[in-house]
Amino acid sequence: MNTRPSPTPAEPERRNIVTALVYMFERLMPDPFVLSIGLTFVVILLSVFLAPKSSFGNIVTTWYGGAFGILGFALQMILILVTGYAIADAPVVQRGLRALASRVQTPTKAALVIFPMVAVAAWLNWGLGLVVGALLAREIAKRVKVDFAWLVAGSYSAWSICNSGLSSSIALSQASHGNALNLVEKATGHVIPLSQTVFASFVFVPTITVVVLMTIIFIKMHPQEADITLIRETEAPAATDDPHARSAGSDSLASRLEQSMIGTLFLLALGIGYLAVQWSSKGFELDINTTILIFLLVGLALQRRPIAYADAIHRAARQTGSMLLQYPMYGGVMGIMSGTGLAAVIAKTFVAVASVSTLALWSYLSSLIITLLIPSAGGHWAVQGPFVLPAALSLHAPVARVAMGVAMAENVSNMLQPFWAVPVVAIAGIRIQRVMGYTAVTFVVSLFVYAVALWLIP
Length: 458
Known about the structure:
- With 458 residues, this protein is an all-alpha fold.
- 72% of the residues lie in helices and 0% in strands.
- It has helices at residues 11-28, 32-50, 56-69, 71-89, 91-102, 107-124, 126-143, 148-159, 169-175, 183-188, 201-221, 253-259, 262-282, 288-303, 306-317, 321-340, 342-353, 359-373, 377-395, 399-413, 421-428, 436-456.
- Helix 11 (201-221) runs antiparallel to helix 22.
- Residues 1-11 and 233-241 have low confidence and may be disordered.
């Protein structure tokens, strides 16, 4: 139901802003896959006119090499998403979220629960954060008189810090030996450990700051009681059978194997054994594959039965279609830019306008724009990395800071780019138009916080 009798004087202005943002992204910008095709065309044109090695044969060859060379990384990113989803999908986690939501009585307490819980989940795994945020928002909205659009926007705002966390595709790829997108290793022969990216003070401090500030701001932004739009019954998913329930069917061997925990325990023993051997011999370290393995093991332990985990992954896979298409396209763009010399040409421009101390900020600012066209951090790095990294090496600027400038700008621009908001609002059962007016505030605040951190924090 909607308890709002009539618009307040400030309502038309807020609606105009939201309407303009929605029109820009939903009417003027096509599907990200179509955008990736257009971007490929633009890069080819730039290569023809600007790059030193722009023959037709070289362009198509480098495009092919890049498109298919990135497939391993694409699968890794998809696994990051689905293994995080499977954790959030586990019945014990779902019960925990409902129990947590039951303790919330006011909008203020809702914000104090949503922001830290979703931020921690997103920092651990961006797929986990998406699902936890949407489901927790729904559970709270069922129990508390709270503006639902405000609540969903808060969960999405808390999720925005994910590119500064353990599942950051840019940070993880640069920490992974031999990874297709480890451009730093390809150029220097060295990997960048997470201690220099995710756990660096210039990343960790603004990440916490954004969460704290936005919690306070969202508490202040909650509409007055007369202006609250409550969750409607029509916004809730239709009643269905329990998605976690798989009929045992007959007492067949196949059914018993599916329901047995033996398979789960076997995989847990293999995975834990591997981590123990690796960390005891080489010391504790994380890269993409070990991160995925940890998420896999946690999800298996929480889901318990092999068939339950398989079903959870099946549900998660519905969210991965766009990723399957986009990553090869952006890999092709990366191949063209590197193979034709276009990336080196753009890098020279950065060198001309930037300095050792300002390059990271230039990387950050340019990333803000590129994110609006390329909503995937991994795909984004495939396009921007080939020219910001050579600029960093030429200027002897801190490579980790330049790379994380790209990642932190992803956090910011995602608040205006509705690509990742779509699964959140779909799970929550709300239209995106009702959310973007709030996330625009997060955009402004986080834009300033991350820029200051890149500029001032060592």
